[in-house]
Design a protein that fits this description.
By secondary structure, the chain is mostly helical. Helix content is 50%, strand content 5%.
Length: 593
Amino acid sequence: MSAEHFFKSNRRDILRLLAALPAGALLAGCPKLFRREPLPVCPNSPDVSLLNGPLTIDAHCHVFNGTDLQIKEFFSRVAARQSGALGAGVKVLGSVLQNLAWSFAPSGDTEIAELRDLSAALRTCTEREHTARVSSLRQAGYTRGREQLQAAVARSSEFQTLQEKRRLGALELDFDPETMSKVEAIRFIEELPPDVETYRAAKANKSLSTMALSGRSIQGLIDFVLQNFQYRYVSIHDYLRTYNQKGVRVVDLMLPSMVDYDFWLAKGRGTLTPLRTQVELMQQMTIITGGRVHGFVPFDPLRQIAYDLKLTRDDSYGLVTKAIDKMGCIGVKLYPPMGFAPLGNRGLDTKSGTPFWERDWLPDWTSRPDLGARLDDAMSKMLGWCEANDVPVMAHTNISNGVIRDFENLAGAEYWEIALKAYPKLRVSFGHFGDTSPVEDGLERARAFKALMSTKDAAPGIHAYADAGYFVEVLGKEPALLTNLRQLYEDTVPAGRAPLASRFMYGTDWEMTLTEGGISGYLNDFVRLFDELEAGPAIRQQGLTGLSDRFFGNNAAHWIGLSSGNAARHRLDAFYALHNVPKPDWATKLDAG
């Protein structure tokens, strides 16, 4: 699609949306309302600011859109083989997902230009004005997503056959559950209302067509698809709108992770919005949100090897270090289940004896015999820099989201034990705490990572933490999750090992959690769970107090080093001074003690 066509389409959307806004919103709005699209959320709005409230940090989330990912390959190669809502939804909607025109999602360059133009408006916007601005943006993104979903159904021969049979009343009465789910998906997509607020209300009231069998996964995956047609800045606002409780608790700091799947899923072909542009965009979002959002930039050792072999001009290490030193990013994101261990890649082989990375979906050159050694060299370079500069690392440690199980296993605790012995002071969060389903799967993986957390100076794991990203069992299995977490908190702690109370952190894994459907209670349910956890007699006997404050904010602040005098805080303060960003709420709360 040409840029000219894209902007013509957006102009038509805007004109329709402006016509629907109240006249007062147009006349009182900030002057730039009529110029171009995305519009800022005023950082001092009570919707997002609560200086006398508890410190709340989301250590694990995402705000990407469909141009930031190898999204078709991710759905077909990765998501389709996963368990849970994501895998179920992809199996039902596979042909629709492959027919979606992701190029209609806003590109990074488009959004950067808008955010740069609009950053000055933050100092003049009122709450009423910024609400009207973001509402118009949200509607435009939803309209794009709705139109593309309905067009994708029309392009899917499989769904059109089902649609015709449904229209003629010729569907078999005994068709299988998967076909039943596809028929339900057609109806769900057809019934998407034109207005985004009507859609949100229908979801809340469960008035959209759903089925007990698979409706939740259908709705959740459609939510995820619609969100991926939004501006990333709107996704930030949608996140805050979903979880913030005005006057009670608001999220002070979001730490969204970017991902780099280019070489692991697409043989090095870049995304529609290249990674460098994604980093530039994250910088602008940090500025325009007043330091409420700081990103984790991805390091891919396979991209680094390609750069060292002169097979690409993109230097992963160079991009990461610049993003953290100069561009407001806060740390490094690692995604081992794509196909690499944090350390310990040397000597890996298949059971058949063929090269471990000789796979038809990977570049041909990955079959070279020294690839494992080169992966370790690239990881050592990155982890060594992180340790030396007190840069935090967010690592995916759930055994999931790889193309094959052999690759997913590389996220396991045994490989992180190797890495921490080599880099004992590394600041690392074991994202997802080894398993996002501790109720269903048990606590073995969580305990393996917990055993790597140390309290001894210079001992491996002195700065090792874990987060609750995608712990969606809190939504439907809270009593069982409470029981499991209580076991972890009450476990006898060997000498020199860290109690979980000082190392476990809040995380949502938004936008990925959207695939579950009905996730608005995630924060509140965790608040209630920790109130109940802290009231337990064994916890009280151990003298463990302030569990909630530690979980929701303080532990993340210690992991990153956000208090004054730490390296990360120094980098962020320098960034704020350079870009005239006022002191954010999270910093004010930490400095007040």
